[in-house]
């Protein structure tokens, strides 16, 4: 181990000595070639000195090697002693830890036993408390549930009373709708609500007379969205034939096919009669359009009418009357409302066309103004070109002056670089003439 640790130092010393010898030898050889016989003695003395120095370095290296070996022996002894001390210390710590672990194990077992007993006592107390709380909660829940059941029974009795009252009200409503005038007023109110929801304000009239020679009035007359001084109107009349409809529903409920067929024929006959009346009274071109609308207030009634084969097509073709229910009427009214929107857009289009015409005239005037500006800009551009040309001439004159100045300074620079005497000469000349040229 001493050889391994000391060998780098020794080899580095030897390498340095060899390198110094080689350098000295090369220097002496160079001096011998340059100096001749007189320098041979000097070369010999230098060689002797180098040999002595090399021997001294070798002796010093041997002494360092011996010191390193001694230091290594001392370190090895110290390391062995320290290793023995550490081994004894570790053994002592291990014995102490063994004793501590055994004592901790005994203490831990006793603590676990005490904790188990305490946990058992706590669990018994907790079980008793939970049983008590659970008993109280069950009793309270039973009382609450019983109270809720009583409240629900009271609410059910109240609801049954309300149902009885509602049954009486349904009977009253049924008796109310047995009056033809009341049924018509309800259908008219429903139709008015639909018209108000879909159409813009002021787009229809109520109870309007269409003929000058007749006192008949139509319930609703919707003004059509067309370009005219007096636009035509669409007549809409509400009908509610409840007798035939109720007989049909009763026959369907009783599963009586004969009564159902008779009720359907009666409903078909009633609807044809109403459509003929509307066509005779309320289709008056050019005051009205070529068709009218018969409104049925319930979707159930409209569905039963639509189930009669070919009835709606025949009424529309023969009497020019369109039958509609609450589900279809808003769609037709939205179409009319779209016509109003289209008419407003057409009017706006005319306004926009007039505005574009005025804008075109203004653009033509603006074109004339821009042409005048272009002529002025052309004259200004020619003036700018002339100014740029003269600026270029001045710039060229300044560049020529700069070149002349550089050429004048070039001989001085070459003289300054010719040698010390020339520099002294130039400095004397600058002292006579003043400052050097820049």
Automatic annotation (TrEMBL):
<comment type="similarity">
    <text>Belongs to the RmuC family.</text>
</comment>
<feature type="compositionally biased region" description="Low complexity">
    <location>
        <begin position="408"/>
        <end position="425"/>
    </location>
</feature>
<keyword id="KW-0472">Membrane</keyword>
<dbReference type="InterPro" id="IPR003798">
    <property type="entry name" value="DNA_recombination_RmuC"/>
</dbReference>
<dbReference type="Pfam" id="PF02646">
    <property type="entry name" value="RmuC"/>
</dbReference>
<comment type="function">
    <text>Involved in DNA recombination.</text>
</comment>
<feature type="transmembrane region" description="Helical">
    <location>
        <begin position="6"/>
        <end position="28"/>
    </location>
</feature>
<keyword id="KW-1133">Transmembrane helix</keyword>
<feature type="region of interest" description="Disordered">
    <location>
        <begin position="399"/>
        <end position="438"/>
    </location>
</feature>
<keyword id="KW-0812">Transmembrane</keyword>
<protein>
    <recommendedName>
        <fullName>DNA recombination protein RmuC homolog</fullName>
    </recommendedName>
</protein>
<keyword id="KW-0233">DNA recombination</keyword>
<keyword id="KW-0175">Coiled coil</keyword>
């Amino acid at each position: 181990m001493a050889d391994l640790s000391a060998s780098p130092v020794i080899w580095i010393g030897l390498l340095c000595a060899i390198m110094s010898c080689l350098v000295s030898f090369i220097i002496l050889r160079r001096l011998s070639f340059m100096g001749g016989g007189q320098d041979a003695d000097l070369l010999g003395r230098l060689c002797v000195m180098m040999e002595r120095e090399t021997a001294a370095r070798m002796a010093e290296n041997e002494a360092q090697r011996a010191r390193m070996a001694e230091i290594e022996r001392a370190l090895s002894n110290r390391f062995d002693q320290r290793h023995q001390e550490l081994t004894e210390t570790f053994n002592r710590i291990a014995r102490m830890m063994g004793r501590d672990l055994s004592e901790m194990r005994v203490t831990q077992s006793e603590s676990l036993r005490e904790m188990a007993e305490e946990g058992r006592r706590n669990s018994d107390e907790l079980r008793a408390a939970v049983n008590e709380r659970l008993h109280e909660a069950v009793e309270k829940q039973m009382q609450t549930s019983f109270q809720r059941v009583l409240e629900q029974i009271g609410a059910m009795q109240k609801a049954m009373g309300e149902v009885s009252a509602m049954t009486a009200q349904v009977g009253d409503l049924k008796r109310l709708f047995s009056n033809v005038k009341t049924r018509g007023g309800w259908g008219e109110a429903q139709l008015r609500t639909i018209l108000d929801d879909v159409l813009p304000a002021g787009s229809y009239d109520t109870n309007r007379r269409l003929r000058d020679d007749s006192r008949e009035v139509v319930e609703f007359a919707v003004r059509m969205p067309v370009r005219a001084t007096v636009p035509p109107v669409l007549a809409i009349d509400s009908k509610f034939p409840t007798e035939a409809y109720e007989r049909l529903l009763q026959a369907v409920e009783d599963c009586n096919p004969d009564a159902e067929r008779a009720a359907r024929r009666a409903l078909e006959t009633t609807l044809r009669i109403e459509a003929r009346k509307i066509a005779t009274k309320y289709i008056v071109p050019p005051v009205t359009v070529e068709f009218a609308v018969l409104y049925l207030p319930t979707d159930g009634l409209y569905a039963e009418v639509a189930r009669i084969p070919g009835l709606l097509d025949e009424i529309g073709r023969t009497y020019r009357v369109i039958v509609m229910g609450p589900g279809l009427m808003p769609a037709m009214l939205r179409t009319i409302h779209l016509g109003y929107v289209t008419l407003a857009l057409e009017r706006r289009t005319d306004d926009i066309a007039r505005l574009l015409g005025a804008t075109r005239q203004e653009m033509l005037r603006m074109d004339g103004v821009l042409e005048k500006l272009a002529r002025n800009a052309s004259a200004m551009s020619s003036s700018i070109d002339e100014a740029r040309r003269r600026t270029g001439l001045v710039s060229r004159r300044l560049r020529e002056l700069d070149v002349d100045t550089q050429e004048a300074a070039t001989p001085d620079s070459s003289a300054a670089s010719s040698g010390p005497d020339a520099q002294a000469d130039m400095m004397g000349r600058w002292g006579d003439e003043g400052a050097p040229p820049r």
